Each structure stands twice: as structure tokens, then as C-alpha cells.
């Protein structure tokens, strides 16, 4: 019930119970030899309806346009172009592992100049390079933009980001990146959330399975993030990975509290504990109002009409009573905060103060 009350607080506060749960190995680790590689390229988007770069403010766009036309065998006269239906963009993509020559991957397109929108544009052929400078893919296609921009002489309205878009299957892979897997090699499993308890659980589960199936214990833990697994003889790497990735283990995580002051979001882990503390929460409100009165002189007197000042001061001191917060469990911690009648942003201040007092037995992360 405490969690439900806390979720209904004004300000949109979120409390998530991160309990020990069962997960498949494939969901909590990644194979080191199957990492993605980032690609980047510079290109031009054409066909914009007057929302492209102003070539005076983005001279590199005009230079790129002339270079492209020269490549196509079209000569242009310097200084005569005043187009606004073209935009310079940065193209990025992730090249997955084991991808083959001729496969297609998604790309993201972002404006580099002062274009107001890429809606309706088409990216012309753009080479995508890796960190080594080699070309691994070539991108081209119509840009899909989620946002929009509408403007007139006196007002404008926009939604989303119209200066960035995406092209699904917009790049063709021209160079392959072979994984470093071989039949007699060792696999390196990397935990997405490093934890010693989880790493040992993975090692024990794989060794228990391999002992019964192959008569060997191939796994050994290196640290909180890395587990090394040797591939048994007589089986391919792909088949062995498929046999262990569906093994289920109990995952663990450290006690942690995440605070986001901008949005008022609070995420409290299941293992968070708080030593008994007394918390006083309240707000002092002082309201000052001016209500001057008009004073008239006595009849047949020499007095004049005057204004007499009148100040009304109201002091409201609410919620200053002490409340006991004894967080032996997540439920009791939430109920203790609910009894204080605090909102999400006040909860953030209280948790930070409890941490400073040494009573919060968890890692406090402020975003």
C-alpha cells in the first residue's frame, strides 16, 4: 500500500522495487567478440521545401554541393548558387558484429548547418567510415523525420526535432567485420551491470551445465564484469553459446537510490535500508498583504484626506512534527515517508539529508 500511495504523489514520483530476480544469461551479458562498431559520415540532403541551409551562413554546404556536381561532371560558376533546398548533415550508424557484405543497417541523419527541417529530403550517396578511417558502408535514401515545424510571419510551432531523422535500412555494408571466434578459443562474457555475486552465479551455472553435458568446467570469473568460458572440444562456438545463453540464474545488484531533481523522480532499490532516524519536514510560509485605508478629516476642519497604511502578516508553519523513518525494508521506508506527507522533491531532500547523517545504507546517485 505504501508504494501505491507514493506513486500517487503530486509531481510524478516513481519507486521501483529492484528485487533479486531470475534472468537468462543472454539478457545480462554481452559477448566481447560481438561488439558493435560506430560509423560516421558527412553528406548532403536534397529535395527540401525551402527549409535547407542558407548558403551564406553555411558555406561548407555550398562547397560540398559544388564538389558533388563536379563529380557528376556538371560545371558550376562560383558565387551563383543561392539554393535553400539542400542541407549538410552528419550520418551515424552502428555496424553490428558478424554482419556480412551486402547487408543493410539503419542510419541516423542530423543537420550540420542552419536548416530548419529535413522533412521530405533525400540523402545522397554518403560513405560511412570507422575509427580506422576505412569505408565500411554507403548510405542513401529518403529521410524519415518524426518532428515538424510550421511557421508564419508572426508565430511558429514545432514538435520534436525536425532537424534530425532516420533511414531504416538506409546503408549497405561494403566491408565485413569478422568476429574473433574460433573453434578452440575462449569466450569473454561481459556483464552489462557489473556485480561479483552475479558473475560467480554465472560461472557456477555454466560449470554445472558443462560438467553434466561435456564432463568439464569451462568457466572462470575474472572480476565483477568478466567471465571467461572455454569452448569444449567437438562443438562449434555458435552451438555452445546457444546452449548456455538460456541458462537461468539469480541476478543481484547493490543497494542504490537514484534521484533526479529536475523531474522529481526517485528510484529506490529493494535492498535499500535506513537506520532509525527522526525526520522533521515542514515549510514556513509568510504571507504579507497591504490593505491601506482612506481617512477623511472631520467636517468643517482644516484637515485633508489621507491614506493610512495597513499591513497584514500571516504565518503558516505546517508539518513540523517529527516523524520516525525506520527503513528495515523498502515497504517500511516508503510508509515512513508517506506518514510525513511529503512530495517527490521533498523526498529527494530528505533522502540526501538521511545519507549525510549516515543512516542511509545505500549508494545515493543524484542525476
Distance between the termini: 28 Å
Number of domains: 3
Helical stretch count?
7
Q: Which residues form runs of ≥5 with pLDDT under 50? A: 1-19
Helix percent reads: 10-25%
Tell me how many strands there are. 24
CA radius of gyration = 32 Å
Largest sheet: 6 strands, antiparallel, barrel
Sheet/helix structural class: alpha+beta
> What percent strand?
35-45%
Averaged pLDDT: 77
Description:
By secondary structure, this protein is an alpha+beta fold. It has 3 domains: 2-18 and 256-284 and 318-366, no CATH class; 36-173, no CATH class; 181-250, 2-Layer Sandwich (Alpha-Beta Plaits), CATH 3.30.70. It has 7 helices and 24 strands. The protein starts with a helix and ends with a strand. Residues 1-19 have low confidence and may be disordered.
Short structural summary:
With 367 residues, the chain is an alpha+beta fold. It is 20% helix and 38% strand. The chain folds into three domains: 2-18 and 256-284 and 318-366, no CATH class; 36-173, no CATH class; 181-250, Alpha-Beta Plaits.
